[in-house]
């Protein structure tokens, strides 16, 4: 009998495994001579039903991602390859976290900015499709396929997403436990080279961590063990960084003759990528603020918190402008449990990420969970005006 093995996919769909599929999911069943007619017909019927109700690509899978229309491969309109065609991505929820994931997936360094896909030519053909899902990334995923998704409803090509990344990968941390720890290597004239500690500084380590989209630099040291030493060339330049640069290429550099060996290769460790979320609300655009640090979610104390900090959070989440609900509304999201990661956070309102605002060191605070920060942003579907929590005429408050 022909055995039809199945596995669950998103949205409850099933697909035949270990069997070649013809276009539109028709089972090729090359060994049908040994199968009973009933089993073969059942398999064929299953494949036809799958084809009719899903069609190619309807399940929201995609195999490749690219940026088109920019000055280089790391800038442009976002497109995904779905089966044999390229589709655009709707810019709802598309924010710097999404761009960071995309740039990481493409090997394009740090995220620079979000853009409208309409800024890039040629003009998107009217018959080109828009991907059926919206991406909701927290910025730490390795690829867009790992981000949470929502159905895209009513998106047109006027809402195509775009992105600008730093450029082709030029620095990396190799042979570490993750992409944010390892031996520093720079790409020079097409070749990866390790870096000598004698021409290195902690300020340069801070730049590398920022360039790679990781958290803050925590360690730079001389020497790697035998298993993590480099094998190839050693970089023949010395970088002089202030620590504020976006990438290592922005640092002043000079040709430097040295007699270093791989015993002096630089090792750098960065914190994990920064992520935040709002929990306890009706959508991801309102709720108690939590930030991710060392793999653990924790809350933020409201000492020193203000409207500028709200603005940074809402922008980072792609949720528009912050609202100013009364304290009783903010308290409806409830207190957190566990860690309180940040205290005395002070923002100018212009920072692209909350991580760049001033604050005490991670985990240092004099607060309890009754002081947890809550934020309410206008969100994607906000239509009721700035006082939605006050209710409508003839009705009570949405918050009781």
TrEMBL record:
Alphabetized InterPro entries for the sequence: SRCR, SRCR-like_dom_sf
Pfam families: SRCR (PF00530)
Entry keywords, A to Z: Disulfide bond, Membrane, Transmembrane, Transmembrane helix
Superkingdom per UniProt: Eukaryota
Keyword Glycosyltransferase: no
Transmembrane segment boundaries: 38-59
Name of the protein in question: SRCR domain-containing protein
Gene: PRSS12
